[in-house]
Amino acid sequence: MDQGSKYNSEMDVSQSVFNTQAYYEFLKNVQELASNSPNISLINMNEVLMEKIKNSTSSRKITNLIYTNLEFNSIIEKNDFSGSYLTKAQTQWEKKLIKNFNLICTELNMPLAKKRSIVEGQELKRIWNELGTNVSDMKKFRPIFSTSELLEQILSLKCNNLSDLAVNSMTGLINVPISIKSLKDLKKQYERMSLDFFQSGLDENLNSVIEQEKHKNGVKVVEINDVILSKEFSKTGCTRSLRSKLWSQILNVNVGNLDIIYYNYLKQCVFEYDFLIDSIYYKDVKIKAVNDDQLFVFEDLLYQVLLMFARDTHVLKCYEEKSIQSPKGFIKLKNSTDLKHHPVIYPPNGFIPFDGFSMLVAPICYVFADPVLLYFIFRKFFVNHFYKLSIISSDPQSIVGLCALFENVLQSKDPKLFIQLRKMDIQPIKIAFKWIIRAFSGYLQSSQLLELWDRMLAFNSLEILPIFAAGIFLYRRQSLMSVPNKLHVESILDDLKSVRVVAILQLVFA
């Protein structure tokens, strides 16, 4: 990074910190320390205050805030989002999504947004905690795009200069020059997942004493409230009773008064305006989550989160510095003589959801009961990780890179299995893609899914998803090698409810 870029990055982080409630609490704390310290003077003020500030709670919050902002900025700087033909592919994909959206509007003869009447807004407010009763006939609505459409778009990507190809084999379907880690590098990065370390989610029945000791250590980690320490501790899993606190610390989500005000503002936006995309979210929840035996109890929470999420312009932040254009609609300004229609970002958060997107919210409902905290935790999940699951870019953790990593890990660990599947005209990525894009939500038992997401957060990486996907193929290798055709392969991989996440990850890293 050149000096100019470094300076701009530091200024961005500083500005992000200055605009937070934590910073104002920090300043207030410094003022209180200065006024309540009897032995302080102009001579020793700096020394005395610095010592007191280091041990204060507000200082820890500022440290965590700086760390998470630097981490977010470093991801943007490290990854090249501007690969020429991948940028063009993303642009083409964006145009296709907007075309699909426009077709839905035309078919239904509905506007993108309309203002609710006072009566409608009051009724919605009255049933806010029972939004499932507000769902009318959803048959006429359809997803803007399916995961299979996105996969087809990715598989159509071809690199003209094959000499630049960064993958190790041409037997897979992902043929793009994207930088992915080797199996050796992955084993080094995920060393804490090896058999040498006790893992929550695997050994607790056999090692209850060790699990109890880990819980005690976890309590100490939570009390310290340090992002780096919380991540390191969670690399071997989170004990169930501490998961919510550890996730909050890792994501650095601290709900304060300003957050509650913003949450209520988003809620009010829902009461005032009816969006077409609201009905698409309703349909997604009804079809995906409500039909899941483990998730139907969260129906109303899912509606609340998704309706506010669609209106949250803070989400646009994760598209900055990247070659991603937010979709736009056109409006005519009120009380204006200008006949032109002016472009506005629609939906306001700039994100067009794929079929099944609501399943990325559902697992968080297991961990957080408070709807305000639940919302901000999900939003942080999205801006840190989940937005990458539906964009085409050269970022190794975009969906393209994750697909390439899956193929590379599976081929590296078991080339015979990969070749055998190819002989049966089976492309493993076509089976694994639906798992990866939904981060396995809806495919695993809830307890196992949370174990997987523990590691995703702790290692700050979506790579754990394709690694785990490859591990499932390895785990069921014997059955896969003995079946005669594609239909049998799909049936073997259809039900994942019995798999144990940690055991499979350790199989890959062995």
TrEMBL record:
InterPro entries: Rab-GAP-TBC_dom (IPR000195), Rab-GAP_TBC_sf (IPR035969), TBC1D19 (IPR042507). The chain crosses the membrane at residues 357-378. It comes from the Eukaryota. Keywords: Membrane, Transmembrane, Transmembrane helix. Gene3D superfamilies: Ypt/Rab-GAP domain of gyp1p, domain 3. Residues 237-460 form the Rab-GAP TBC domain. The keyword Membrane applies. Pfam families: RabGAP-TBC. This is TBC1 domain family member 19. It comes from Brachionus plicatilis. The lineage of its organism: Eukaryota, Metazoa, Spiralia, Gnathifera, Rotifera.
